[in-house]
Amino acid sequence: MKSSDSINTECFFLPSHIKSLHTKTQLMWPLYVLLNKFLGTEEDNTEQSGRNRISLVESLFVKQSVGHDKFHGTVPGSYFVKVPHINQLHSWDCGLACVLMVFRTLGIEDCNMQELEELCCTTSIWTVDLAYLLQKFSVNFSYFTVTLGANPSFSVETFYKEQLPNDLVRVDMLFQKARDAGISIECRSISSEEISLLILSGNFLAIILVDQYKLRQSWLEDVCASDFCNDTPHYTGHYIVICGYDTDGDEFEIRDPASSRKHGRITSKCLENARKSFGTDEDLLLIRVEKEETKSSHHDHGDHCIR
């Protein structure tokens, strides 16, 4: 960003000071009110797409809330989870930093960035690689994407051009083996409205793939760590964590491993623009914030590549 004239004032990255693990406002919104608010205001929304979105939200709420007394058909006006900020160490390991932030939030302490690098055995990290890491540590999650496998059309993008030919077979193989590995992958788009409702339920975090250039357009220049922020107007894949949402401001709380700030917010509009850019496949890892009781350490499985 060369000057403040190019900044979209609707999309500022705002600092947020969060004091407790699950901080909620007193205002409680009935679920159907929020569904009507979000789903009813979209100009291109059809009756069928509305039913599909409601079905997704309700199915996840029901599936993930069985045995939990906290869900009674209402959600708060805002909800935030205290997620520790962890910076990436290299230009390519933002996804690993996001996974580590999730691990720390879940109380998984028996790993670090170096161990995650060794488990991946590559510096060309795809969302499916992150999914295998989450599965290896018995994290409860779902994987959403609009493309099953590596998208060969991305070869026109500079970001993918060098690695894509080598990644095609490897990534496609990981997708083919995902079901047997216990990884749930849903081939569909998930809207920002659905994300906000799931976050407001108090049950979920998300790791999202975005175009870093489009994300950075909404920030002040000093927000990013200079070594890892993209200055060129070309697609650059980047992972961030979504850990909160405020209904009044229509803003998501995020953790960005390339950012120099530990807390930040971005509007729903800006997030949508960055995560639906060509090159992302709208990849999203929706993570249950509680560990499974049967979780075992990765040491039980051996410190080998996830492939």
Q: Mind describing the biggest β-sheet?
A: 9 strands, mixed
User: What coarse outline follows from CA principal-axis ratios?
Assistant: globular
The residue-averaged pLDDT reads 73
How many β-strand runs? 11
Give Rg in angstroms: 19 Å
Cα separation of the termini:
39 Å
Instruction: Give the fraction of residues assigned to helices.
Output: 25-40%
Number of helices: 10
Low-confidence stretches: 1-55, 62-72, 220-226, 291-299
Share of residues in strands: 15-25%
Q: Strand-and-helix sequence, N→C? A: EEHHEEHHHEHHEHEHEEEHE
**Structural class, from helix and strand content?**
alpha+beta
Pfam families: Guanylate_cyc_2
Organism: Anisodus acutangulus
InterPro entries: GUCD1
Protein name: Protein GUCD1
How would you briefly describe this protein structure?
With 307 residues, the chain is α+β, with helices and mostly antiparallel strands.
